[in-house]
Predict the 3D structure of the following.
Amino acid sequence: MTRPAPLGDRVRKPEGKWSGTAWLRRAPLLPALLFTIVVTQIPFLLTVFYSFQSWNLVRPGSRHFVGLRNYLDVFADSQFRGAMLNTVLLTVVCVLVAMLLGLGLALLLDRKFLGRGVVRTLLITPFLILPAAGALLWKTTMFDPTYGLLNFVLGADTDWLSEYPLASVMAQIVWQWTPFMMLLILAGLQAQSKEVLEAAAVDGAGRWRTFASITLPQLGRYLQLAILLGAIYIVNSFDAIFLMTQGGPGTASTNLPYYIYQRAFEGFDVGQSAAMGVIVVILTLIVATFALRLMFRTFGLSEVR
Amino acid sequence: MMRTANPAGRWALTAFTWVVAILFVFPLLWMVITAFKQEADAYTDPPRLVFTPTLDQFAGVLERGFLPYLGNSAFVTVVSTLLVLLMAVPAAYALSIAAVPGTRDALGFFLSTKMLPIVAAIIPLYVISQNLKLLDNVWALVILYTAMNLPLAIWMMRSFFLEVPKEMVEAGRVDGAPLPTLLFKVILPVVAPGIAATALICVIFSWTEFFYAVNLTAAQAGTVPVFLVGFITSEGLYWAQLSAAALLASLPVMIIGWIAQNHLVRGLSMGAVK
C-alpha cells in the first residue's frame, strides 16, 4: 500500500501553494469550504468556550468562568462513564450484528431466483422509513408487553423495554441498519471477478472454501467501508433511545448523545453538557484519525495531494 | 455465489430467502396492516389479522394537522438539497477534474465534519438560533441539513467526476472550449446520473433527520419526525393512527428509494462502490 507523500514533496509545487492562480483554481471549492467551516466549526468553538463556564439556564445571572471545573465534574460523574460504556457497546454490537446479518442477506440475494427484485426491495425498506417511525413501531408493535408481537410469538409476557432496554434499542438499530450493510456487501459480491470464481470451481474448491479464501478477502474493502460508515451514524444514535426508552429505566440505555441532550435540555446545564461535548469530540477525533487513514486507503487516495 | 447443484436445493434456498425477507420486514408489514385498522382492532391479545379495513386513521392524521409538517419537511428537504448541489458540484469539480493543491486535506476536512458528534454542537446551535430568531424556523434546518449533507455530496460527486474520461476533457480543452462550454456540453451530461444519486441521498437524510428537528423546532417549523413525536407525549398511544402517520411520513422517501435503489449503494458509500 502506498504511503502519504512526505510533507516536503507536497509543498514543492510548480506554482506556490497559495499563489494567485492557485486561488483562482480553488474558487469553485470556496463556497462549500466556507459554508462548512462557518456552520460546523463555529458551534464547536462555542462549545469549547461554554465548557469553561458555569452556566445554568434556570439560574439567570449565574454564568461565570470556572476553568476546568466542568471537566473535573464530568470525569467524576459515574453516569457519564456509564453512558460512554453504553455508547461503545451499542456501536460495536450494532455494527457487527448488522454487518453479519447484512452479509447473510447479501449472500442470499446474490443469486438469480424468482422475485429477487421484490425481495431486495422489501429488504431495503427498513432503511427508508423514518428512524422515528421505526423506533415507535418497535416500541409498540414488537415490544409491548401485552399486545406486542414478540411476546405473542414467544408466548411470554416480558416487558422488553424495561427488562432489556439496551438490547431492545439495539434490535431496532440493527434492523434499521442491516439493509445498509446488505446493500454495500451485495455491491461487493457482484463486483467479484467471475473468472476467479469459475477457476475455483474448476479446481474443485468447495463452497465454504471458495467463500473463505476468495470471496471474503475480496469483500474486505466493502466490509471496512460498511463498518466505518455504519459506526459514524450509529455512534450518534439518538432517535431510538429518545423514543423507545428515554434512556431508562434509570440510565440503563443512556448513551452519550442522549445524556448530553438530557443535561442540556432537561437539566439546562450548558457548561456541563458543553464539557461532555468537548470530551466526546476529542475521543471521536482520536478514533476518526485512524478511521480517516483507513478511508484514504480504501479510496486509494493516499497519493492524492 | 451461492451455488447449489440440484434444483430441489435451489428451490429450497429460494423459499428460505423469501421467508427470511418476509420475517425481516414483518414489523413494517404489520405497520401497514395496522394503519387500516380501527383503534380497537389495533391492540388485541392475540393480534388480529381479520378486520374491516378503514381509512379513518389516515383522515385522523390529517385532522391532527399533519399537512403543515409535511410541507415543512418538503421545503427543508428540497431547499437544502438544492443548496448542497449548488456547492458540491463546483467543489467536487475542483477536487477531481481540475484537482487543486491540497485536495487530500480538503477531502479529509469535509469527511472529518461527518465524524464529529452532532450532539456536541447542539447547545451553541440552540443559542445561536435563539439569537438569530431562527428557533422554530425552517431556515435553521435548511442551513444545518445543507452542512450535514455537503461533505457526503462532495465525496460522492467527486467519484462521479473522476469517471469522466480524461480524453474528453482534454479534447475539449485543446479545442479551446471555454470552461462553461466544457462543463455544460462535456462534463455535466456524463455526471448527470451522479447528480441524481447525490440528490437522492440528500433527500433521504434530510427527510429522516430527527435530532436537530426535535431540538430546534416546534409547532411552526416542525418536520414529519417531530409530528411523530407528538404521539408519545399524548395520553397513551393511538397505535392505528400512529401507524398511519408513520406510513404517510415515510412514504415519500420509501417510493423514491424503491425507484432509485440502484443508485442507493453508490450514494451510501459516498461513491466508493460502483
Summary: DSSP finds 15 helices and two strands in chain A. Residues 136 and 265 of chain A are 22 Å apart (CA to CA).
